[in-house]
Specification:
The complex is a heterodimer of chains A (about 140) and B (about 625). With about 140 residues, chain A is an alpha/beta fold. Chain A has a single domain, classed as 3-Layer(aba) Sandwich (Rossmann fold). In chain A, about 40% of the residues lie in helices and about 20% in strands. Chain A is built from five helices and five strands. Chain A has helices at about 15-25, 40-50, 70-80, 100-105, 120-135; strands at about 5-10, 30-35, 60, 90-95, 110-115. Chain A has a five-stranded parallel beta sheet with strand order 2-1-3-4-5. In chain A, α2 (about 40-50) packs parallel to α3 (about 70-80). Chain A is globular, with a radius of gyration of 14 Å. With about 625 residues, chain B is of the alpha+beta class. Chain B is about 45% helix and about 25% strand. In chain B, strands 2-1-5-4-3 form a five-stranded antiparallel beta sheet, sandwiched between helices. In chain B, strands 7-6-10-9-8 form a five-stranded antiparallel beta sheet, with helices on both faces. Chain B has a five-stranded antiparallel beta sheet with strand order 12-11-15-14-13, with helices on both faces. In chain B, a hairpin with a 5-residue loop joins β14 and β15. In chain B, α14 (about 435-465) runs parallel beside α19, α15 packs across α17 (about 510-530) and α17 packs antiparallel against α19 (about 585-595). Classes of the chains: A alpha/beta (about 140), B alpha+beta (about 625). The interface between A and B is medium-sized, with 24 and 29 residues.
């Protein structure tokens, strides 16, 4: 039984999603990878399953640039409903943007644990997941 | 004896004869007596003489008469008698007593002659003498009176003269009139006075005199020369009235008039002054007004004040001015006027209404000062400020565009590059052919996406760089026609309706290339995001905006955009707002780039489920 049940990818880039999903599956640390093409689909699912803890992900990797509802708009909606969710969901922004303005904006949102610039390497991904399992690990990614 | 009867005859003919007895009873009256007394002889004879008594004379007078004649003496005197009809007549009367042997009068003969006319003249003279003395009294009471001889030596003064001059009568009589000379009047004035009266004419004027104690007093003076038979003045009567108080008032008035005229002078020297009547017709202008307006005085007087109207101020401004002054209030402000030669000048203006007794303005005084150079300075500063604001705006726009560009690089170019890098990694690590082929097949679309984005960016940079692109005169309807050709298939397939209205603004100055691209993008969007529930209706029109700009709008009845969600990103690259297979998110970005490159503006209004309208405001077309 993998230590993490669900990782959710919110990203419209099909190639990237395909590759990242493959990479996560190879770690054997995650039971299921779910994918939403935009923020709206993701937030709707969470809203519908607020009490259904088994269906909610432990980790979300959130892209910023998406159609319909982008990463920022998703976060705005998520912050509103977060207190009502019966489970801690760790959100990482995962974007190809290296813009300092984006990174700064992400750090100002409490619900965002970190900003990971694409591409993510397999080793970083494993570290990220391990860090989630053992939060006291000194290797925990710092916000600073 | 004959001689005596002749006398009697003559006497009867010429005189009024009556005879009475010693008791006064008339025994005889001649014709003349009857004629003057208007009684007949029968009515008179046997009557007491008192029948003709007028009651005019005192009882002493009558007593004296009787005692004289009773003593046998002749009495002479003038008697006023009353005729039968009540009129009076005067008679010069001689009464001769006829004595008996005892030397006692036994009858009286009264010989009278009619002196009514003379007496009437005397009475009138008396009356007028009375009147004269009344006048003299009144004059003495009311006026300051002096008489001098022809040399100016005072021969008479009344009490008022003494009172005002503070001299006693004895100090004045015999003195030259110059004793009260104040030295105030010019020698010409004095000379004129003397030459007037010396010629026998009356002189009137106001004279300042000096009293004994050195104080001055003013008198309104009339000098009347009294002429002798040779028509030469032998003395002068001077009648004066004290006008010291009035003169003092006049002098104060003169002082304040002087002050007022000094003010007026100062104002005329320093300010631009005009007076208009209550209708705005110019009635007075000073030299400064003529100088600044470049009109002559005669060109301005009688004209409406609008002759210098520059047309610069709003009608509200002018209305406010007039309503203020029409209410009798002072108006202050700065006005731009137009001179005769068409140049403009600015004046700081104060308009003061002059009110009549009904508190209504009957004329307006406008005092202005030239502030043209200050205003020009202000206008320069304002223009500079506007320029600075414009520069700042352009700079801000450039900065925003630069930020946008950084974001485009960061978001849109980096993403496909990341994909390529990852795909390469995966391919390298893959040991299985089928997996490797699968990965390779994913490479092609990423590369072509990268190419598209890259081309788009190059285009957009070109647009921004192409500041020299020239404006074309675009007939909007024609341009739209060309664009719509490429949508024919879709329009037919969807049974779409295109409404146009370019009546108001048929022509827009803009690069044709951009206009076609913009219309193409917006129509493409409108068709792409049509509502599944209804046939597409696209309405395209132009209209004139207030500041001379042209507004082009393209409305559809499609699915609409959630602007709440997308307002910040509407025109950004790679943004699509719908799950649509052909949504690449480049159209609006390019449209905005083209619009902004030409200093125009684009925005959208939308309601989900109802439709979207895009607006493009083209800058003022006048100078283009």
């Amino acid at each position: 039984m993998p230590p993490i049940k669900i990782i959710t990818l919110i990203d419209d880039d099909q190639v990237y999603v395909f590759l990242t999903k493959k990479m996560i599956e190879k770690t054997n640390l995650v039971k299921e990878v779910r994918v939403y093409e935009n923020g709206l689909d993701a937030i709707n699912f969470i809203k519908e399953n607020m009490g259904n803890l088994d269906e909610l992900p432990e980790i979300i990797l959130l892209d910023l640039s998406m159609p319909i509802m982008d990463g920022w708009q998703f976060l705005k909606e998520f912050v509103k409903i977060n207190p009502c969710i019966g489970k801690k969901i760790t959100i990482y922004i995962h974007s190809s943007s290296t813009s300092l303005a984006d990174i700064k904006r992400a750090k100002e949102i409490e619900e965002v644990s970190d900003y990971i610039v694409k591409p993510v390497s397999k080793s970083s991904l494993i570290e990220l997941i391990k860090n989630f399992i053992n939060p006291d690990d000194p290797l925990k990614l710092s916000k600073e | 004896m004959e001689k005596i009867s002749d006398y009697k005859y003559v006497l009867d003919e010429s005189s009024i004869i009556a005879i009475t007895d010693q008791k006064g009873i008339i025994t005889y009256a001649n014709d003349n007596f009857c004629k003057i007394s208007k009684y007949s002889a029968e009515e008179l004879v046997g009557k007491d003489h008192r029948i003709i008594n007028s009651g005019y004379h005192s009882s002493d007078f009558i007593k004296n008469l009787w005692s004289t004649i009773a003593k046998g003496k002749v009495w002479k005197g003038e008697i006023k008698n009353k005729a039968k009809d009540g009129t009076y007549y005067w008679v010069d009367t001689t009464i001769v007593p006829f004595l008996n042997s005892d030397r006692k009068p036994y009858q009286y003969i009264a010989i009278r002659s009619d002196i009514t006319d003379r007496k009437r003249g005397e009475e009138e003279l008396e009356d007028s003498l009375k009147e004269v003395s009344d006048y003299k009294y009144a004059l003495d009471e009311s006026a300051i009176v002096a008489i001098t001889n022809q040399k100016g030596i005072i021969t008479h003064v009344n009490d008022n003269f003494c009172e005002i001059s503070k001299y006693t009568r004895s100090e004045l009589i015999g003195q030259d009139h110059r004793i009260i000379n104040s030295g105030y009047h010019s020698s010409d004035f004095i000379k004129n006075l003397w030459s007037t009266i010396a010629k026998g004419n009356v002189w009137k004027g106001e004279i300042k005199n000096k009293a004994k104690d050195g104080t001055y007093y003013w008198v309104d003076t009339t000098i009347v020369p009294f002429l002798n038979n040779d028509h030469k003045p032998y003395q002068y009567l001077a009648i004066r009235s004290d006008i010291t108080d009035r003169k003092r008032g006049e002098e104060e008035l003169k002082d304040s008039l002087k002050e007022v005229s000094d003010y007026k002078y100062a104002l005329d020297e320093s300010a631009i002054v005009a007076i208009t009547n209550q209708k705005g017709i110019i009635t007075h202008v000073n030299d400064n007004f003529c100088k600044i307006s470049k009109y002559t005085r005669s060109e301005l007087i009688g004209q409406d004040h609008r002759i210098i109207n520059s047309g610069y101020h709003s009608s509200n401004f002018i209305k406010n001015l007039w309503s203020t002054i029409a209410k009798g209030n002072v108006w202050k402000g700065e006005i731009k006027n137009k001179a005769k030669d068409g140049t403009y000048y600015w004046v700081d203006t104060t308009i003061v209404p002059f009110l009549n007794n009904d508190r209504k303005p009957y004329q307006y005084l406008a005092i202005r000062s030239d502030i043209t150079s200050r205003k020009e300075g202000e206008e320069q500063i304002r223009a500079n400020n506007l320029k600075a604001i414009e520069y700042a705006r352009i700079l801000e726009l450039k900065n925003t565009q630069l930020m946008d560009f950084c974001n485009i690089i960061s978001h849109n170019l980096r993403a496909p590059l990341v994909n390529i890098a990852m795909l390469v990694d995966f391919i390298e690590q893959s040991q299985e052919d089928f997996e490797r082929n699968d990965l390779l097949s994913k490479m092609r679309p990423v590369v072509s996406n990268l190419m598209d984005i890259f081309d788009g960016l190059v285009d957009s940079i070109q647009i921004r760089q192409d500041v020299e692109i020239k404006l074309d005169k675009i007939l909007v309807e024609k341009c739209l026609g060309r664009v719509l050709k490429s949508f024919n298939t879709q329009i037919q397939k969807y049974d779409a309706t295109i409404e146009v209205d370019f009546e108001k603004v048929p022509i827009i100055y803009f690069p044709t290339k951009y206009m076609e691209s913009i219309l193409s993008n917006l129509i493409s969007n409108a068709l792409k995001y049509k509502s599944p529930n209804r046939k597409p209706l696209i309405s395209i029109k132009t209209e004139q905006k207030r500041m001379g700009t042209t507004l082009l709008s393209i409305s559809d009845n499609g699915v609409g955009i959630d602007l709440e969600l997308h307002k910040d990103n509407l025109f950004k690259i790679g943004k699509t707002f719908y799950k649509h297979p052909n949504a690449k998110g480049f159209g609006l970005f390019m449209t905005k780039t083209q619009v902004e490159a030409m200093d125009a503006e684009i925005w959208a209004e939308s309601q989900l489920g109802k439709g979207t309208t895009f607006f493009i405001e083209f800058k003022s077309q006048s100078q283009s």
